[in-house]
Specification:
CATH architecture: 3-Layer(aba) Sandwich
Low-confidence stretches: 1-20
Number of domains: 1
Bound molecules: S-adenosylmethionine
Helix content: 25-40%
Shape: globular
Number of strands: 9
Structural class: alpha/beta
Radius of gyration: 17 Å
Strand order of the largest sheet: 3-2-1-4-5-9-6
Length: 227
Amino acid sequence: MSSIERTDESRADLWFADQTWGSYARTEQVDKTFDLFDRVDRLPQGATVLNLGSGWFLGVNAAMQLRRPDLNIIGVDSGYRLLSISDEAHALDEGVRELYETMSESDRTALEADQRWRTNLVAGVVEQIPLATGSVDLLFAHAVIPENTEPHERAFMWAFEEMSRVLKPGAQALLAPHWDTPDSVWGRTVAAAVEGGLFDSGEVSENPIYIPEIGHTLDAYMTTFVR
Ligand SMILES: C[S@@+](CC[C@H](N)C(=O)[O-])C[C@H]1O[C@@H](n2cnc3c(N)ncnc32)[C@H](O)[C@@H]1O
């Protein structure tokens, strides 16, 4: 038996790390990768969007709320368990300051008046999502899976089971970037999730990504599931 076999109860404990990531996602990058804002614009009134593994820089959540204040936008991250620790709270505030510097006065006023974009955060893990079954209209995970998930079919499948559970029928899960091809363990697990009936479809597609820090584009992949 593989060492990764665990009971469901232990899924959460495994991934609650004692460190979280900083300001990684640029809002424009996440939008471009997922065509996110166009998809958000098309969601029905009051829909729920899950930013899974949302981290500390909540510009994407803020931008979605500005476009669609009617939406219920939720961030889930293992790191939010640490919100009471002053360093992490400080890190969140840094992200907010950075965000405010880049926006118009009227947008800033709107986000200060309605702070759900930075308070609608739930501590939880990809493998055991703390949301109700069939409650999510759109899910995305940027730079979370599989980079931060143990590279093992069983761990991927846990994540896929949970995404399937929380999505409404017909809703999409968008996962990127990742560097494994459709022939990889990741790709085979995606196919197995569809064959096993977790999703109607699942596609791994090339999605080259520009990395500003290194100044050029890398091969990367995106996975789209339809529930
Ligand atoms: C590279 S960061 C990306 C953060 C954000 N999505 C972005 O694009 O800036 C990875 C994030 O995933 C979170 N994470 C790692 N493993 C996780 C898990 N198993 N469940 C939930 N969140 C996880 C980390 O705490 C971190 O915030």
